[in-house]
Amino acid sequence: MTGLQEARQDDDLSLVLCGQAGQGVQTVEHLLTRIVKLSGRHVFATKEYMSRVRGGMNSTTIRVSSRRVAALVNRMDVLVALNRGALTHLAERLSPETVILAEQAVLDEGAELEAGASFDLPFSDIATGIGNKIYSNIVAVGAIANVLGLDLADVTGYVQHFFAKKSEEIVADNVEAARAGYEAAERLELPDGLRRSFKTEAAIRDEILVNGSEAVALGALAGGCDFVSSYPMSPSTGVLAFLAQRGRDLGVLAEQAEDEIAAINMAIGAWYAGARALATTSGGGFALMTEGISLAGMIETPAVVHVAQRPGPATGLPTRTEQGDLELVLYGGHGEFPRIILAPGTLEQAFALTARAFDLADKYQVPVFVLTDEYLVDSYYNLPPFDVPDAAIKKHIVKTSSDYLRYAAAENGVSPRGIPGYGEGLVTVDSDEHDEGGRITEDMDVRVAMTDKRLAKGETLKEAIVPPELIGPEDYRNLVICWGSTYHVIREGLAQLGRDDTAMLHYSQVYPLHPETTDYISRAERSVVVESNATGQFRKLIRLHAGVDVDEGLVKYDGLSFAVEEVIEGLEEILS
Fold first, then answer.
1. Helix, strand or coil for residue 423?
2. Domain that holds residue 264
3. Per DSSP, what are the bridge partners of residue 228?
4. For 350-366, how does the pLDDT look when each residue is reduced to its tens digit (9 = 90+)?
5. What are the φ and ψ backbone dihedral angles of 365, each rounded to 5 degrees?
6. Disulfide check for 559: which of 51, 106, 255, 320 has CB 3.0–4.6 Å away?
7. Do 478 and 497 form a contact (C-beta atoms < 8 A)?
8. Mean pLDDT of 84-103
9. Helix 136-147 to helix 152-162 angle, to the nearest 10 degrees?
10. Tell me: the pLDDT tens digits for 442-459?
11. Closest-CA residue to 280 (of 299, 313, 303, 247)
């Protein structure tokens, strides 16, 4: 059995919550996923939401399973519709196997839609009977917990813990709401097989449950980050918020800048002073940062920038997902200078690669970009605690002598980096072309020498390239190539396809491109790149930098992430 041939089990339930912004869908999601994990079951959750504070339609997909799950499926075993419009919003995902729990008025609205069994659960009436309609979402928590076979004591215990800082009356009402919802669902005659017998593991209770934003932020801390600057922009804001909320305890100075121009320049200034700084943004914010990125290239300062992608152009779909900014990050900035682009595909990679980004930036004095997207930063699943290296963080800073030259000639392009006040030397940097000492010059020969020195790092960087991960048979006939957040969806899709002639090649570093890329592709009879953009940006990058054409491209660019079923359908057509 290869790494792709994982048997699908029946004890895997896909639950979808749908309601309006401001209705408490996120609270239901938060409570359920934590209770599920504490019960010893594996859990995965991701969301799609409209760009509005109230109203509209938002949905969260939660998978509960006896095995590890980390990918979106379109399948809806249970749909909990919390208000009118929910059924039509998710009409394309409904099937005759979908069980719907909703109030009768919601069910009536979707009477013409194709779906399975429907059950009236009067969330609002139950909540009103307890004392306030606002408890409707907690009634839903109790009802869903019953369907999942969770223990009522575990449910009420966690609800009590979650609301512990509220008044005793509010805590008691929420506990009663959860109990009432649980008992209401107990009375339903649900279809056979819906209430599943999940295998539980005690060890899961001690695992962590984090989303992509938290994984990136924790990785930054592991990499020694002590300064973060950002102008809030979805979907990257979670990284800033996490570090700002914990900065006082963790020694991180967090600055919400007036705009992205200020944010990148603050980060560059912090690196110049000896800090390890992070700037976090999204595509539109990165567009404003590009002059600062060029400044980092010219003065050869380290820089770490997290870019959480969303669909453009302009504001596009600000709360949706896409892998559409690869070329923006690859070419952002005027002039020519080397860079590194990391694209984690899992939460483990988001942590490890963000930590690594700080060392790479420091060691090679180049901008390093951590490229994620809305799907990755807003998805989470249970996993063992991250592996934090025991070794102390190594800073690549020298103590300067009186004759120190910031841009001294170096065969590998990397000059010794000093910082002001550490040693006797003068650390001069300038955004204009400069000589070895950092002084402005228009000498053409010096210009050529400095350009060559900077570009020499491009070759040096190849010693630190993260290799792609090959999953499946080494003697493959078909090769499915992917990068970034599509990792788990494609891996599970290929596992369900069950083809022993097909392997998956995932890139978590997309630039510089690994030198064995050409060999990987040349060995395949048929190759395909799967990515979430319209023009096949990574496929083009491979053609340009590996000198080989990938046979096919499977793309998606409607603002939603790939689902496992879409991967299966698309690859079956291409590989048939």
1. strand
2. 209-383
3. 254, 278
4. 999 999 999 999 999 99
5. 60, 50
6. 320
7. no
8. 93
9. 150
10. 999 999 999 999 999 999
11. 303
